Amino acid sequence: MKVDKKQQKATLFYHRHGREVYTYSLRCLGRHEQAEEATQEVFLRLYRAFERDGYCEEGKERAWVMSISRNIVRDMIRLRQKKPVTVSIKAAEEVTDENRDSGFDETVQKALDELSENERFVVVMRHYLNMPFDEIARALDAPGGTVRSWMSRALDKLAARLKKELER
Amino acid sequence: MNCEEAEGIMMEHLYGEPAGALDVHLQSCPGCARKLRQYSETVRGLGPRGDLVEPPQRVLDNVLSLTSSSRPAAWKYAAAAALAAGVLLAAALALRQNEKGKAPSAPPIAASQPLGLRNEYASAPASQKTPASRYKLEDWMTYTPANNGTTENGKSVWDKWPAKS
């Protein structure tokens, strides 16, 4: 397959940020197939941005990629809320197997699912992607103080939820 | 430092930033010290930090195939569809003509519209026109030559016309 310059650039971005985008999508959406769809869409949008000669400032590449990821994942979450996905028992078992393979803790994932969108985005970006708060603030287009307060609220909710699960 | 400011710094401290002035606050605020312990426990419960998951290879393959330049652009599909529609239309018209069993008729000409030749002829100077064009047929039918058709030298006026070969 012939690869043009924009595709080469998209591939370069994929090798730099593909794992971060995928992990973010997986932790926020909770399912591999949806994470794949979201990751694919992120890099298609990046390719289209390169077609329009879009660029990001030096040193802000990850925040730019993650802000695109945030928009796509948020749209998918909202779409799912409007149109809940019916999952068969077999499919649910397959998802559990997949999660076990990727070292996912079901309890943690359920607790993350109960957070608000912004709280979940901050926890995933800070904890799983190891992004500093200032970079998260750029990706989420929110003030740094607000981002830190989403994080502390999220940790309060997670503590309560994880405690309840451990007591079961 | 108040408790609200301490909480902001706690978030940084949980992920490895030095505590700095936070330590001083924690020594005098048992509530914040308890909160920090609870946050640390929760963060540990979230699992390993920076634990990234590798996406399947098919994700990149799909991106490259969907953006491949060998994939015809949308306008090419539209042009091909328009061409196909044109060919079908022409075929349908030809079929219709065949069914009628006659050649396509010439477009009707308005009575007022002169034919090309007639029009060209009408605009030509009188000197270039044959005498017949200057008279109507009735004029010829009612024409009576002077002297009952006899010229001065006793020949018929009709003799002026060249003999038929």
Structure overview:
The complex is a heterodimer of chains A (about 170) and B (about 160). Chain A has about 170 residues and is mainly α. Chain A contains 8 helices and no strands. Chain A has one domain: PhyR, sigma-like (SL) domain (Butyryl-CoA Dehydrogenase, subunit A, domain 3). Chain A is about 80% helix and about 0% strand. Chain B is mainly α and about 160 residues long. Chain B has a domain of about 45 residues. Helix content of chain B is about 55%, strand content about 0%. In chain B, helix 1 packs parallel to helix 3. The termini of chain B are far apart. About 5% of the residues of chain B have low confidence. At the A-B interface, helix 1, helix 2, helix 6 and helix 8 of A face helix 1, helix 3 and helix 4 of B.
Rg result of chain A: 17 Å
Series of secondary-structure elements of chain B, N-terminal to C-terminal? HHHHHHHH
CATH superfamily grouping of chain A: PhyR, sigma-like (SL) domain
Q: Structural class, judged by helices and strands of chain A?
A: mainly alpha
Q: Just name the CATH architecture of chain A.
A: Up-down Bundle
> Which two chains share the most extensive interface?
A-B, 43 and 35 residues
The CATH topology of chain A turns out to be: Butyryl-CoA Dehydrogenase, subunit A, domain 3
Q: How helix-rich are the residues of chain A, as a percent range?
A: over 70%
What's the total number of strands of chain B?
0
Q: How many strands appear in the DSSP assignment of chain A? A: 0
SSE order of chain A, one letter for each helix or strand: HHHHHHHH
Distance between the termini of chain B: 135 Å
Total domain modules of chain A: 1
